[in-house]
Amino acid sequence: MAQPVRPAQPVRPASPVDRAPRPARPAPSSREAAKEETREALLAAGLAEFAEKGLDAPSLDAICARAGYTRGAFYVHFKDREDFLVAAMERVLGPFLDAVIARGREPQDLARTVERFVELVDSVTSAPTHGGRARRGAAPGLVQFHRLLEACARSQRLRDGLVRLIREAIERVARTSETGQRAGAVRADTGSDVLAQLLVTLALGVITAREIGVPLDLEAMRDGMLALVAGGAGSKPGRRA
């Protein structure tokens, strides 16, 4: 006997649990991280090109190819080559200042700043080779400071960026000097601003002289700078300029 045909059961709509999960959209933070990664890759490639070939020779195409991105990606992050040079300069000098200048919380921080500067300059500067390029074995991404000064002479934007970084360095060293003066560890007969200006401009001269091959006794200079800024019983309170 034939079995009665049962009516088809209606298909139950899939519940949210039954549905296949949709691919998650990247969070805004992930997109920002990807953009920052692209920017950093371009800067790293540019610094490597500048260290090997000087500031003028590398083309934007060479920098983009080295980073693995297109010129379109470059212009997402930088207006033009000059804007890129300013960012590259900040990328190098910003961490340099952070590594050298102590926070200014302790009386001996100015002495630590002088010692760190001499150690770092000794490790990253080298005698110039043909065209002012860094010699083999120099720190990766090293751009010689005297070549940067030459570029500043041709670019107002680059010059403004360098002046801003130098003024920041002077302000930070001045705060560090003032902390030492209050504790009697730094001479107080000269204003902290004046001390900072002297030390920062002396540091720039040391870097440039070292790069172009002037023989310098960095250890003796370190000891001399420490003696010049050290506080003593004969120093009188100074004031900031």
What is the name of the CATH topology of the domain at 81-229? Tetracycline Repressor, domain 2
Mean pLDDT: 82
CATH architecture group name of the domain at 81-229: Orthogonal Bundle
Secondary-structure content class: mainly alpha
Number of helical stretches of at least 4 residues: 9
**Series of H and E elements:** HHHHHHHHH
CATH class of the domain at 81-229: Mainly Alpha
The fraction of residues in strands falls at under 5%
Q: Low-confidence parts lasting 5 or more residues at pLDDT below 50?
A: 13-23, 127-141, 237-241
Helicity level:
55-70%
CATH H-tier superfamily of the domain at 81-229: Tetracycline Repressor, domain 2
- The total strand number stands at 0
Query: How widely separated are the two ends?
Result: 112 Å
Q: Which value, in Å, is the CA radius of gyration?
A: 28 Å
Task: Give a quick account of the main beta sheet: strands, pairing sense, barrel closure.
Answer: none
The rough form would be described as elongated
